[in-house]
Amino acid sequence: MAKFNLLEEPWIPVREGGRVREVSLWEALVRAPAIERIETPSPLEEAALHRLLLAVLYRALPPVGGFWDALDLLERGEFDSKALEGYLSRFHDRFYLFHEEAPFLQIPDLPTKDPLPWAKLLPEMASGNNPTLFDHTTEANVPLAAYAQAARALLVHQAYAPGGLLKRLGVTSAKDAPLARPAAFLVVGENLFQTLVLNLVPQKDPGVPVWELPPLRTQDVAGHATKWPLQGAARVYAWPSRGVLLLDEGSGVRAIAYGPGVEPLEVGFRDPMVAHRLDAKGQVSPLRLSVEKSFWRDFSAMLPAAGGSFPATLAHALRLAEELGLRRELRVPGQVSDQAKVLDVRREVYPLPQGFLSPVAEELLQKGLELAEEVGRALSGVARRVAQGLLGDKDPEELRRFQDSLPLLRLYWAELDGRFPQFLEKLAGPGAMDFWREEVRRAALRAWEETRAFLGTEGRHLKALAEGERVMGSALAPTWGKEGKTP
Amino acid sequence: MSKAFVDYLERLKGSRTWTAARAALRRSLAFPPGEYPPVLPYVEAFVDGEGWEREAHYLVAALYALKDGAHQEGRTLAQALRQAGQARDSKSVGKRFQALLDADRDQLPFRLRQAVGLVEGGLDFAKLLEDLLLWFDGRRRVQVRWAREYYGVREEETQEEIEEVKA
Prior knowledge:
- With 487 residues, chain A is of the alpha+beta class.
- In chain A, 39% of the residues lie in helices and 16% in strands.
- Chain A has helices at 25-30, 43-60, 67-76, 81-90, 147-160, 192-199, 218-221, 233-236, 312-324, 359-391, 396-405, 408-426, 432-455, 459-475; strands at 3-5, 12-16, 19-23, 37-38, 96-98, 116-117, 164-168, 171-174, 186-188, 227-229, 242-248, 253-260, 263-265, 276-278, 284-286, 329-338, 341-351.
- Chain A is globular and about 80 Å long.
- Chain B has 167 residues and is an all-alpha fold.
- In chain B, helix 5 (77-88) packs parallel to helix 9 (141-151).
- Chain B is built from ten helices and no strands.
- The termini of chain B are far apart.
- Classes of the chains: A alpha+beta (487), B mainly alpha (167).
- The interface between A and B is medium-sized, with 21 and 25 residues.
């Protein structure tokens, strides 16, 4: 029996007129100009929902061939509802969350022996080898998920499932879902319509999304029988990474049948939402969020000057927004995982000032980041000196542990985390570098003051601190304007 | 105020009574500050009541006598100790300095006497009195400053530090 059609039932949380409510996929697209944005506490949901909407747009709208098409579309101010209606009514039957033959992004005839709790779909929920980090659900008492919630979890899982042991249907281990490790880049405009167009990067061939193909069945995924090249935004944005079947309990979902999905074949395709960097080995790899540092510190890695590349969404959106003078911000949602273990789920938000794309701004950004790292490295020298001063030349491991326990570096970076957005905003204007140099200096000094207070005032502490301070003086040398003035 | 006290001591040094005063003041170092009656005439006029402030004045007067009135403005005890440590190339000065930083009210007179004994040349006694008066401040700002003066930046080392930090 077909039930809960995603095109008609409300399940996408959006902010509209200052309030958050759930809308259907159809409503989200047709009323996009009136909707402020997709609003969800989960960073992963935010990315996954945008990707689904974009995948639909790639297929439903006349192709956006390039910059000028996109500009026309933005100026029109809404999506062509006739085109949308034509397309969505054609595939209406493929958007049922529950369906005998073709449940959305699922496999209808998965064996229901050994079902898993639905919480398995979300890394934020404790289940399997997810640490009990964000939530204290136990597998024995899984709460019932509402259909809308289950639909979003399904989408998140297909985009974010980390690879690893699977041991079902003849597949021992599964590959990463497309966003399992890279950070996604979303440029957000003034309303959902702008946001979608800004991220609708022109594609030569967006590929065929899963709902346009014959429904996958168990035999297609058993033993990874089906392999598709990981190519085309429309297909990659709604990739069936795992075989999932939501088991309906009449009023919600408690358990799922689970198995392998379509195996991705690596090809030269670059996900438009993903940034790349040149790593130490000279290989191009996607930029990830990391547990210990904020994403901005890697900003420069993706600058073309450093051999990296902007994510296509960022480059495309910036040009468009610049042309029309739109307000925009950058949102970077992602998860941090180690093998199959998810360590953190995060979303970072940065302003994108006018003039951000200019070569001057890029160079300043790069210089600014280098300066922050340089002082950061020097501060870890200070921390080492303090540790040595206090502990003497003990075994290096102990020294390192003590050094890490000092709040110096953590406070320094935390302080700069708060200041970096302002540096970004100033990039296109005069005095950005002077501003940043001063902020870096202040952050270092403030972190040092706190470290002083943290350490104590016995003679041996004072001695270690005085020696640390001596190193501190030279650590701050780079912020004393040796680079000359900002253009 | 501490300046006025040291000016007075300087005048005392110039007077005929200095020899006797010096002997009495030195002798007083064997007693808790302010408890050796023969020195009361020299100091008591500068202090009122009981407490640390009174003791600090007696202590400084006695140390001044110990150094035979070698007052040198601007040369702090921490700086002088650093020079003493460098000249002797010995670790004991450093150890004593650290012990001095941690000294409480009972230990302070003895450790100060030891430290002053290590120093060659004059000291700024006005500054010393000023610092002693603030010795028990909760944030230990005096001790922090002393540590800076003792272990702090030495010009010739700065360059080498930069290289080390970059490595």
